[in-house]
Amino acid sequence: MGLCEHCKKAQATFHLTNITREGEKIERHLCERCAIEEGLVQVHKPNFNAEILENFIAAAKSSSSGDMDLLCDECGISYVEFRNQGLLGCPKDYDTFKELLLPLIERAHDGATHHIGKSPGSLGTTRTTQQEIRRLKRQLDEAVAAEDYERAAELRDRIADLETA
Amino acid sequence: MNKSIDQLARQAGEWLRGEGPMHEIVISTRIRLARNIAGFTFLTRADAEMRAEIADTIQAAVRKAKDLRGFTHVDVDQLDELGRNLLVERQLISRQHAEGSGARKVAFDPSEASSLMINEEDHLRIQVMRSGLQLEEAWKQINSIDDALEKHLEYAFHPQFGYLTTCPTNIGTGIRVSVMLHLPALRLTNEFERVGQAAKDMKLAVRGLFGEGTEALGDFFQVSNQITLGREETEIIDDFHHVVIPKIVEYEQAARAALLEKRLHALDDKLFRAIGTLQSARLMSSNEAMQYLSHVRMGLHTGRIKTIDLQTINELFIQTQPAHLQFLQGQRLTGEQRSIARASLIRARLSHN
Fold first, then answer.
1. B202, exposed or middle or buried, with CB in 10 Å at 0-12, 13-18, 19+?
2. Quick check: B149 and B65 in contact, CB under 8 A?
3. Are B247 and B150 in a shared domain?
4. In angstroms, what CA-CA distances link B349 with B17, B280, B282, B345?
5. B107 and B218 housed in the same domain
6. Min CA distance, B267 vs chain A (Å)?
7. Do A17 and B227 touch (CB under 8 A)?
8. Do B79 and B88 contact (CB within 8 A), yes or no?
9. Domain span at residue B313?
10. Which residue, of B235, B256, B277, is where some domain finishes?
11. Least enclosed by CB within 10 Å: which of A148, B92, B164, B185?
12. What is the ipTM of this complex?
C-alpha cells in the first residue's frame, strides 16, 4: 500500500474515485488525517440525537433571560444544570421552567409552541378541536405565504366553522 | 457469547431484505417514538433503584400488552461489549443505548421489525423498521404498539407540550422518522449537494451511515426529521413520503441513467473492479467492504451485474460489520484479524459466482 499523496508521510487508507462529467476517472489516496482535513471523511458521531442535542445546548447557553437559579421542587434540577447538559430532570420541569424553555422550544421546533397529534387515550390520531384549529391556522399561514388565496379562503372558513361550533 | 443473540448474527433482519417500494434506492424506513412514564423523574435524575423500577414497570407492560408477548427480552447491561455492538449493527438498539450505564433493556419481535429500548435517553423508545419506503405501514405498526402499551402504562403527557421527553428537542409527538438511502451514483458524480439542499429546505437532517470510528462519507445516507412539536405525526411522515424522498430518489435515478448513457465504460470499470476486489482481496477494512458492496449493489440494480444475487450482497452488508464478524467466527478478533476474516468471508460467499 502506498503513502498518502497529500502529506506523503502516513499510509494511505482512504482510496476515493470520482468520475468527472467527461468520463475521466480521478483517483485519490489519502491518509485518515488528510482525508478528514479535506472534509472527505467525517468523524463518527455517537448518534444522530447527539448532534441535535449539541446544537440545542449551544442555543441554550447563548440565551440568558430570566431566573437562572430557579430550582424544580420535584427533582431538584436547576435551570443552569439543564442549560449545561440540555436534558431536563422530570416532567414537572416543563412547568417550572416554562418561561425559560419556551424560546428554546420555539427555536428548536420552527416556531411551534403547542403539540398537535396523538395524545394518550385518543387511540390513534383523533384530534381535539383546539388541535385541529391550530393545525388549520398553520396551514393558512403557509397558504398565505405561498399566495394561494383560494386555499387560504377555504381554510379561513373551516377555522371559523370550528371556532363557532 | 450470549445465546439469545448468537443466532441473530446468522440471519439478515427483516429490514435488510431488499424489498418494498423504491427498494433499489431506499434501504429502509425507521420510525421511533420517545415516551416517558408518569410518576418517575427522567433518567437524568433517577438513581439505580428508580432505573430498575422503571425498567421493571415497562417490561411488565410489554409482557401484558396485546401482540407483544412473543418479544425477546434482553438485559443490555448484562451483555458484553461485543453483544451490545451486535445489537447496534442490527439497529435493534442505538449506540447511545449500548454505551449507556445502569439497568437498561431491549425487547424485540422475532422478525426484528420492531424493538423497544428501555432506559435509553428516555424511559422508552419504541422503534419500527421496514424494508424499502414503507412509511405508512411503519406508522401504523408503531402506533398500534404504542396504543397497546398505553393500556398498561401511564405516559408523561402535557396539554401544551404533548409527550414529555428528557430533551426538549423531542417533545410533542416524540417522533423521529429516518429513511436510509443508497445513493452511489450521486456520490460518484459529485452531485450529492442536491440531496443536502432538498433536505435542508424541509428542515430535515442528513447524515452518513455505517462504519467504525471515523467513517468515509459512504454511499449510505439517513434522512431524519428534527422538528417534533406543532406538526401531526402523519404530516411529518407525509413530507418524507410525498416530497423529500421521491425527489432524492429521482436525483439518484437521473444520475444512474446519466452514468449508463454517457459514461458506461467508467461505470462498468468501477462495478467490475469492485467484484474483482471482493473476490480476490486478502485483507479488507469495513469501509472498503462497504464501498465495494455498495458498487455491486448498484451494478445489480442497473442490470450491469447479473451473476450475483441481491440477497447475498444484503447479507454481506451486515455480516461484514465488526461485531457480526466476531460472532460468526465465535471469537474476539483484532483489527487485522477482522480484515482477514472479512476478506475470507466475502470470497467464500462470492466464490461460486
1. middle
2. yes
3. yes
4. 17, 12, 14, 6
5. yes
6. 8
7. no
8. no
9. 264-351
10. B256
11. A148
12. 0.88
